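Exercise 7b. Backbone tokens:
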């Protein structure tokens, strides 16, 4: 079925709204601006650099994704957002310390023009932050109405045709879904009554979805994955995706663990520890915030190495995850993994990984891809949970009856096949039937 005729073409400007304009957001925006000027390459972005195979291998059709799918161009993007600190994006980028000052100097005028709107902030959800650029604490319903007004004002002021929103702010404390989250009606009643279980990220998501703006949750927060907001997304025909950007150590797990599974090698233990020093590390230094991240990171391994299916190999994995705040590293994160595996006749072996990564450098292209793909999904009239974007998440959101897929390579196959389907191309299963089909035709 060719869905191509249902996809609205790109026109005008696409506004990308960013709750949280710290290290990740400023690195993302500076990189896009630099790519526009031809002074940097958007490495790590599938939408800008990756190819996609179409048809049989013998056809040799491998266009860039951006040339195959009608995505918004980098030149059409406009940026804005909210932050608990009032620094413009140039000042915030300098403070974040991810990019070198001489690099930032090349896009300084554009970054200085991007000034954050006052944020919705509740210290209960991030006690290690002291927000100084925040909206007065009125009722949660009034705050949501202010966010909706911010969204509309930004759209009008920047002459945007369409908007998307990508959460780049901090991890909130761990909390579980309550009755107030169980339906849209109860959630809206909770807003009116200042219910304490409605977190700031939920308020941003609600405001976006009420405005018909696609929303992506970049942190492990309980947010989009509640029935109330899933209901609202379907009601307003708006795509949603989450949660928790898959960047450093978890990215490595989703690469290595599928290989161990493919070779039927056993795993006795997997110990992971990280040290980092940016604002994210400061927030995660609070145990209640770390637990949110721990749950998100911990689900990945169990989702790939299924102990119920094969208890002899993976039924008793000792899996530990640690994150330590270490200010000298700044945005540079170091992750160590010690993996105890076993093979033929139970003989033990070890794998050790030391990943010295740059968190925001890995996250920035994810923000770009999600913004462009969610805008594409909206124009393709897709709504609700976009499971085909699981490739980008530590804890992919799925329909309630489905288990998430964590294998990076299966996730990529699903993403590419979704694009093929929407553009009217044949799906590719990698069954290797091309040769046999060609032989049959010759016979």
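Sequence design result:
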């Amino acid at each position: 079925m060719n869905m191509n005729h249902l996809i609205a073409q790109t026109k005008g400007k696409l506004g990308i709204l960013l709750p949280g304009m710290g290290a990740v957001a400023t690195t993302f925006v500076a990189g896009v601006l630099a790519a526009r000027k031809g002074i940097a390459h958007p490495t790590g972005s599938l939408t800008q650099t990756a190819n996609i195979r179409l048809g049989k291998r013998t056809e040799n059709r491998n266009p860039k994704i951006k040339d195959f799918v009608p995505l918004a161009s980098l030149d059409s993007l406009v940026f804005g957002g909210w932050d608990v600190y009032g620094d413009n994006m140039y000042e915030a980028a300098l403070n974040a310390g991810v990019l070198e000052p001489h690099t930032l100097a090349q896009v300084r005028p554009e970054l200085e023009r991007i000034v954050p709107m006052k944020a919705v902030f509740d210290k209960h959800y991030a006690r290690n932050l002291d927000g100084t650029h925040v909206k007065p604490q009125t009722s949660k319903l009034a705050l949501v109405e202010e966010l909706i007004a911010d969204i509309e004002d930004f759209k009008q002021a920047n002459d945007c045709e369409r908007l998307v929103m990508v959460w780049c702010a901090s991890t909130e404390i761990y909390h579980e879904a309550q009755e107030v989250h169980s339906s849209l009606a109860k959630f809206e009643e909770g807003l009116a009554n200042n219910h304490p279980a409605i977190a700031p990220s939920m308020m941003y998501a609600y405001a976006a979805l009420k405005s018909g703006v696609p929303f992506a949750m970049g942190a492990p927060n309980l947010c989009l994955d509640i029935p109330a907001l899933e209901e609202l997304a379907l009601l307003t025909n708006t795509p949603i995706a989450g949660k928790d950007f898959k960047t450093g150590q978890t990215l490595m797990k989703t690469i290595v663990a599928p290989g161990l599974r493919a070779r039927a090698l056993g795993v006795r233990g997997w110990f992971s520890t990280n040290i980092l020093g940016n604002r994210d590390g400061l927030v995660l230094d609070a145990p209640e915030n770390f637990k949110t991240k721990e749950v998100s990171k911990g689900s990945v391994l169990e989702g790939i190495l299924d102990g119920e299916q094969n208890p002899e190999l993976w039924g008793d994995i000792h899996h530990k995850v640690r994150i330590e705040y270490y200010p000298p590293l700044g945005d540079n994160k170091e992750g160590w993994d010690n993996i105890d595996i076993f093979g033929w006749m139970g003989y033990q072996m070890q794998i050790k990984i030391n990943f010295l990564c740059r968190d925001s450098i890995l996250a920035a292209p994810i923000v770009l891809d999600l913004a462009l793909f969610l805008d594409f999904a909206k124009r393709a009239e897709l709504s609700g949970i976009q499971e085909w974007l699981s490739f980008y998440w530590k804890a992919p959101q799925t329909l309630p009856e489905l288990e998430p897929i964590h294998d990076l390579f299966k996730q990529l196959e699903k993403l590419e096949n979704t694009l093929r389907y929407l553009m009217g191309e044949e799906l590719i299963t990698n069954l290797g039937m091309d040769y046999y089909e060609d032989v049959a035709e010759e016979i």
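Instructor comment: Residues 149 and 297 are 35 Å apart (CA to CA). The chain has a mean pLDDT of 92.
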